[in-house]
């Protein structure tokens, strides 16, 4: 039976595809205060601004390609039972060919009813505007988990992490909870990696094997190691 490889990814894995990370830009996100464009308060204050912000993100994402880190994780499905838990809202893991992706913070190319959160729609184009409605007649919003909102996918993510044989963390500052807390659910016996240009300080609570450098290089290095060790 294939071993279970669980990978938690963050903005750093998409950096080499040309998508800006969050915390490398002084609290501004593409020129905006994060709370203006990614919080329920921001949405209440100025829906047009929020919709436009995500329209621009989608437009930008259309031309973006997965990089070697995404592609390597997809290739690993040949050897391992791979689940990716991503904080990213881009669809680069899917574009790279990964089949099991849990999106903790939503998906850029989906919209959601403001009245009934269970109504989620795949978007064909990049634009979502004032007046775009769900089947029950309420305004659609981006399908993004904003600051201060619940993270419904954390439960299945915890379940998967708790069964991992190998657990890797790639390109995340581990500053945002509950995603950052997932590490603690990895079994003691499972081998753990952290790949980042600048390994976040985890204190001495979590023993992860650090691979410093670009996600593309680090992921390949990890890939070689786990294939040699576990196959
Ligand atoms: N390769 C590897 N790691 C990189 C690279 C790269 N090319 N470039 C940057 N990094 C690392 C940084 O060192 C940092 O540790 O990626 C990490 C990015 O951290 P953040 O910008 O904080 O992104 P992330 O951890 O994904 O943010 C979590 O916060 O704003 C919210 O909801 C948003 O999902 C996001 C969450």
UniProtKB/TrEMBL annotation:
<feature type="binding site">
    <location>
        <position position="54"/>
    </location>
    <ligand>
        <name>substrate</name>
    </ligand>
</feature>
<comment type="function">
    <text>NAD-dependent lysine deacetylase and desuccinylase that specifically removes acetyl and succinyl groups on target proteins. Modulates the activities of several proteins which are inactive in their acylated form.</text>
</comment>
<dbReference type="InterPro" id="IPR027546">
    <property type="entry name" value="Sirtuin_class_III"/>
</dbReference>
<feature type="binding site">
    <location>
        <begin position="87"/>
        <end position="90"/>
    </location>
    <ligand>
        <name>NAD(+)</name>
    </ligand>
</feature>
<feature type="binding site">
    <location>
        <begin position="171"/>
        <end position="173"/>
    </location>
    <ligand>
        <name>NAD(+)</name>
    </ligand>
</feature>
<feature type="binding site">
    <location>
        <position position="215"/>
    </location>
    <ligand>
        <name>NAD(+)</name>
    </ligand>
</feature>
<dbReference type="InterPro" id="IPR029035">
    <property type="entry name" value="DHS-like_NAD/FAD-binding_dom"/>
</dbReference>
<protein>
    <recommendedName>
        <fullName>NAD-dependent protein deacylase</fullName>
        <ecNumber>2.3.1.286</ecNumber>
    </recommendedName>
</protein>
<comment type="similarity">
    <text>Belongs to the sirtuin family. Class III subfamily.</text>
</comment>
<feature type="domain" description="Deacetylase sirtuin-type">
    <location>
        <begin position="1"/>
        <end position="225"/>
    </location>
</feature>
<keyword id="KW-0963">Cytoplasm</keyword>
<dbReference type="InterPro" id="IPR026591">
    <property type="entry name" value="Sirtuin_cat_small_dom_sf"/>
</dbReference>
<feature type="binding site">
    <location>
        <begin position="10"/>
        <end position="29"/>
    </location>
    <ligand>
        <name>NAD(+)</name>
    </ligand>
</feature>
<dbReference type="Pfam" id="PF02146">
    <property type="entry name" value="SIR2"/>
</dbReference>
<dbReference type="InterPro" id="IPR003000">
    <property type="entry name" value="Sirtuin"/>
</dbReference>
<dbReference type="InterPro" id="IPR050134">
    <property type="entry name" value="NAD-dep_sirtuin_deacylases"/>
</dbReference>
<keyword id="KW-0808">Transferase</keyword>
<dbReference type="InterPro" id="IPR026590">
    <property type="entry name" value="Ssirtuin_cat_dom"/>
</dbReference>
<feature type="active site" description="Proton acceptor">
    <location>
        <position position="105"/>
    </location>
</feature>
<keyword id="KW-0520">NAD</keyword>
<feature type="binding site">
    <location>
        <position position="57"/>
    </location>
    <ligand>
        <name>substrate</name>
    </ligand>
</feature>
């Amino acid at each position: 039976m294939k071993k279970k490889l669980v990978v938690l990814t963050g903005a750093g894995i998409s950096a080499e595809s040309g998508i800006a990370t969050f915390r490398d830009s002084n609290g501004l996100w593409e020129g905006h205060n994060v709370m203006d464009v990614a919080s329920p308060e921001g949405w209440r204050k100025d829906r047009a601004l929020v919709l436009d912000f995500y329209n621009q993100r989608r437009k930008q994402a259309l031309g973006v390609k997965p990089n070697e880190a995404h592609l390597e994780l997809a290739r690993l499905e040949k050897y391992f039972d791979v689940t990716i838990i991503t904080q990213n809202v881009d669809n680069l893991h899917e574009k790279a060919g990964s089949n099991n992706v849990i999106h903790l913070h939503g998906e850029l190319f989906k919209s959601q009813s403001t009245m009934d959160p269970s109504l989620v729609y795949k978007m064909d184009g990049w634009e979502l505007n004032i007046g775009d409605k769900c089947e029950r007649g309420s305004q659609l919003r981006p399908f993004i988990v904003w600051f201060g909102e619940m993270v419904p996918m954390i439960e299945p993510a915890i379940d998967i992490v708790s069964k991992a044989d190998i657990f890797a963390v790639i390109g995340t500052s581990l500053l945002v909870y509950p995603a950052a807390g997932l590490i603690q659910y990895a079994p003691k016996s499972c081998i753990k990696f952290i790949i980042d240009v600048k390994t976040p300080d985890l204190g001495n609570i979590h023993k992860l094997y650090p691979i410093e450098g670009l996600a593309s290089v680090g992921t390949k290095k990890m890939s070689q190691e786990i294939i040699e060790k576990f196959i």
